[in-house]
Design goal:
The longest helix has 24 residues. Helix 3 runs antiparallel to helix 4 and helix 3 crosses helix 5. The protein is mostly helical. The chain is built from nine helices and no strands. It is elongated.
């Protein structure tokens, strides 16, 4: 199917757009960027905790699509899964570089939440959850983000991280236990965040 015939439909599918990108069709690439950039940015932000770095990862993942559109082939999960895999790996690379650049523990974040006796609002709970997530080791954070935020199955998330299913499930169990510990240290329970992580 050519892009021209795909455009006669209401929405050209990813495969038709990627084929057009392989022919260096900039308008097809723009459609793919509009379609997939928000999810990639969300994934990268959750893994890195930095909007600027998340933007860089999003752009780099999409540039890889531009550079490799001619060899991309649809597989399980299609283009979104392929792009998430690239973005996840780019995030893990950045997190490893951060760890090599500084062996010192990261500075404590200033708690801007209201005093303990004030009403616990959604923003404070979100900040506690985000801090707990950022405190996890890189691969544990990736496992939580892919499973709970991106809502991938354990099998798909394991594949994305290059792990066997049992190893991934063990990683996820350790991540949930570490999250519970961090959240409890903040003086709340996992149930207060809306789930029993």
């Amino acid at each position: 199917m050519t892009l021209a015939s795909a455009e006669t439909l209401s929405e050209p599918d990813d495969a038709a757009l990627v084929a057009a990108v392989a022919r260096r069709d900039a308008s097809a690439f723009r459609l793919l960027v509009d379609r997939h950039a928000p999810a990639l940015h969300r994934l990268a932000y959750r893994m890195l905790g930095d909007a600027s770095e998340a933007e860089d990862v999003t752009q780099e993942a999409l540039l890889r699509l531009w550079d490799h559109a001619d060899v991309w082939a649809p597989r399980g999960g299609g283009l979104p899964a392929w792009l998430r895999r690239i973005a996840s790996n780019l995030c893990l690379d950045r997190l490893r570089r951060r760890a090599r650049m500084s062996e010192a523990p990261p500075p404590e974040r200033i708690d801007e939440a209201p005093p303990a006796d004030a009403c616990l609002d959604a923003e404070r709970l979100s900040a506690i959850a985000q801090n707990a997530l950022q405190a996890l080791p890189d691969r544990q954070r990736a496992a939580v983000v892919l499973t709970y935020y991106e809502q991938l199955s354990n099998l798909a998330a394991a594949d994305m991280l290059g792990l066997k299913l049992k190893a991934f499930e063990s990683l996820l169990v350790r991540a949930r236990a570490a999250l519970r510990t961090h959240i409890a240290a903040a003086g709340i329970s996992a149930a207060d965040l809306g789930g029993g992580a």
